[in-house]
Design a protein that fits this description.
Layout (H helix, E strand, L loop, with lengths): L1 E5 L6 H15 L3 E6 L13 E5 L13 H15 L4 E5 L1 H16 L7 E5 L2 H4 L8 H10 L2 E4 L2 H11 L6 E2 L14 H8 L8 E6 L8 H11 L5 E6 L5 H10 L6 E5 L4 H4 L5 E4 L8 H8 L4 E4 L14 E4 L4 H12 L2 H19 L1 H18 L12
Parallel strand pairs: 1-2, 1-4, 2-3, 4-5, 5-6, 6-7, 8-9, 8-11, 9-10, 11-12, 12-13
Length: about 400
């Protein structure tokens, strides 16, 4: 198939999933075209079979705000027609599904049908989409999509409830390449850990875009309590609006020498295996992709029991779950695991096993391929069925 993908190309779960999906689809033999305002940041070295098309946005002085959604619709229609795309797959409803709808209508006027699939990722539904100014058009775009998927059962149910959606929404969970996110050989791991910690010290990690919903200051609060009981260091991977607050808190707690702000990192698969535990104290997670990436690297997560996280983490088996804001309990659980190597090893093994058995790309990509086929058949735009990915 020839597939167009639109996403937010910057750091964030929806952009990561969309980019990794494109990479996996290309590896399976499909032709993938990314249509975005900048090249997705994870397209680094594995992009054979992938094409990128930039969306130029006019800065004409009449426009107080550049009309990106219109520019995206126009560019999408151009790319779809020129490269004879079979379908579009847009990630994050606003404004991508609206732009895809406009592109579909533009092409329909010229006698060409271009179906599009919308994948709902989380805040496009739980935060932005529920804004009264966006709710009607978000609902309309979802209803008008030729196919709709969500990354968790929680998000599907939330969308149906909040938006009164009548149409079918397919749950296809997030995934991880289990051959790319892997544990390190013990000797290699020990050597690389020396960059951050002494041999007798533990390493905790947090990975996010540092938005308020991620509660990165709770990560620092939790770690401050952990380090009172266990010699450890904290790796904070990412950047965003709450970074300065986290830096200030680390200094206030007197632990700044043990908290490493690494900023945005492209090769998180090289950092995750160095950690003993991940901290994910989010206010809300529709899935918890960072936790899954850690689990694939044998790193269990101390997380909050919110949204779609319980669909990924089984409390006490492959991670721990706690109420939002309960930093005392999260710190106690983290210290307990770090001080009990046998328990931590068992949980790490279970985390890797969960990723392998349920969320590897080799299991999830065929679900997308089959869904595309159903959409194409339903809309009369069918292409020859593809064999499942190896």
């Amino acid at each position: 198939m020839k597939i167009g993908i639109t996403c937010y190309p910057t750091y964030g779960g929806s952009g990561v999933v969309a980019t990794e999906l494109g990479i996996e689809l290309a590896a399976a033999g499909h032709q993938v075209h990314f249509i975005t305002y900048s090249q997705p940041f994870r397209l680094t070295g594995r992009e054979q079979g992938i094409f990128y098309h930039e969306v130029p946005v006019s800065n004409y002085p009449l426009f107080e705000y550049p009309p990106y959604d219109l520019a995206l619709a126009s560019r999408t229609a151009e790319v779809a027609e020129y490269y004879d795309l079979d379908l579009l797959h847009v990630h994050y409803a606003i404004p991508h599904s609206v732009s895809a709808l406009l592109a579909r209508q533009m092409l329909a006027a010229r006698g060409r049908h271009l179906p599009f699939v919308t994948t709902l990722h989380g805040t496009d539904i739980t935060l932005v989409g529920l804004d009264r100014s966006y709710l009607p058009i978000t609902r309309f775009a979802i209803e008008q999509s030729d196919g709709v998927t969500s990354i968790s059962q929680y998000l599907r149910e939330r969308t149906v409830k909040e938006f009164k959606i009548k149409r079918e929404i397919e749950v296809i969970p997030n995934f991880v390449n289990c051959d790319f996110y892997v544990p390190l050989d013990p000797e290699v791991r020990a050597e690389k850990r020396q960059r951050f910690a002494a041999p007798d010290e533990k390493i905790l990690i947090h990975l996010s875009n540092f938005r308020p919903v991620k509660r990165v200051t709770d990560t620092v609060e939790t770690f401050a309590r952990v380090v009172e009981k266990v010699p450890a260091h904290l790796l904070l991977v990412g950047d965003g609006p709450d970074r300065s607050a986290a830096e200030y808190l680390a200094h206030k707690k007197g632990i700044q020498e043990r908290v490493h702000f690494l900023g945005k990192q492209e090769s998180v698969n090289e950092l995750l295996p160095l950690a003993d535990l991940m901290l994910m104290p989010s206010e809300l997670e529709s899935f918890g992709l960072a936790a899954l990436e850690g689990m694939a690297c044998r790193v269990p997560t101390i997380a909050t029991n919110v949204g779609g996280v319980p669909e990924l983490i089984e409390d006490g088996v492959n991670g721990r779950l706690f109420p939002v804001g309960d930093v005392e309990a999260m710190a106690e659980a983290a210290a307990d695991l770090l001080l009990d190597p046998a328990k931590l090893e068992a949980m790490a093994d279970a985390a890797r096993k969960t990723a392998q058995q349920r969320f590897c790309s080799s299991k999830i990509i065929p679900l997308y391929e089959k869904y595309y086929e159903r959409v194409l058949e339903r809309t009369g735009s069918g292409v020859e069925p593809v064999s499942p990915s190896s």
